Amino acid sequence: MIIKQCRFCERIKTREGFAIMSANNIGKVIVSEFKLKDCKAKVKERTKDGATVEFRCFVDESVVAFDKEISIKVEHETCQDCYRRSSGYFEALVQLRGTRSKVDKLVERIKKYAERGGAFVSKTEELEGGIDVYVSDKLLMNEFFKYYRLKPKRSYTLYGMKKGREVYRNVYALHL
Q1: Beta 165-175 vs 92-97: how paired, if at all?
Q2: Predicted local distance difference test score (pLDDT) of residue 161
Q3: Do residues 83 and 11 lie in contact, with contact meaning Cβ atoms separated by under 8 Å?
């Protein structure tokens, strides 16, 4: 059995996407790989190149449980989140201008808010008049401005095409 693991964050690939490596998630990968219906699998013991897996299957309104030794090979792959982080991906550009102390405080708030929301700041760029912050999620930035009751000037730049639709990046200009 082959399990795909991200080389950077070490999460494993499941049917739903990448998830933290745990006994339950490895069990989900095993169940989906073997195409078992009405079964649950849980890793009881893990070794370097294998695992002892406990299977619990529901057959004719009864439970059948058994253990099985499975050899596991880990292949490395980069998940979408780590790929985006390493490539400098962003959907929103926040241009902050004003006094240095206010700008620095808002940059820290943006970073914390992005991390809590599952996004990231790909880079910050210091300019003469302030700081540009590149954020990976434009919807999260909309929530951020609404939450803090800030009213930036908004504009949009065409980034490219995805599945025949135009994709835009949001640019927010805020003077503090």
Answers
A1: parallel
A2: 93
A3: no
pTM of structure: 0.74
Q: Is pLDDT above 90 for 32?
A: no
Q: Look-up: residue for tokens 């135009």?
A: 166
Q: Which of 132, 3, 25 minimizes the C-alpha distance to 76?
A: 3
User: CB–CB of 4/75 below 8 Å?
Assistant: yes
Q: What one-letter code names the amino acid at 103?
A: V
Q: Write the single-letter amino acid at 134.
A: Y
172 sits in which H/E element: strand 165-175
Measure the CA–CA gap between 55 and 39, rounded to whole angstroms: 7
Cα–Cα distances in Å, from 168 out to 81, 91, 101, 102?
A: 19, 8, 31, 28
Give the end-to-end CA distance of the chain in Å, rounded to a whole number.
Answer: 56
The candidate with the shortest Cα–Cα distance to 124, out of 111, 138, 114, 113, is 111
- On whether the CB atoms of residues 115 and 122 are closer than 8 A, the answer is no
Q: Which residues are paired to 56 by β-bridges?
A: 40, 65
pLDDT for the residue numbered 42: 84
Helix %, strand %, coil % of the chain (to 5): 25, 45, 25
User: Sheet containing 39-46: which strands, arranged edge to edge?
Assistant: 39-46, 50-59, 62-71
Q: What are phi and psi of 57, to 5 degrees?
A: -115, 145
Residues 14 and 30: beta-carbon distance below 8 Å: no
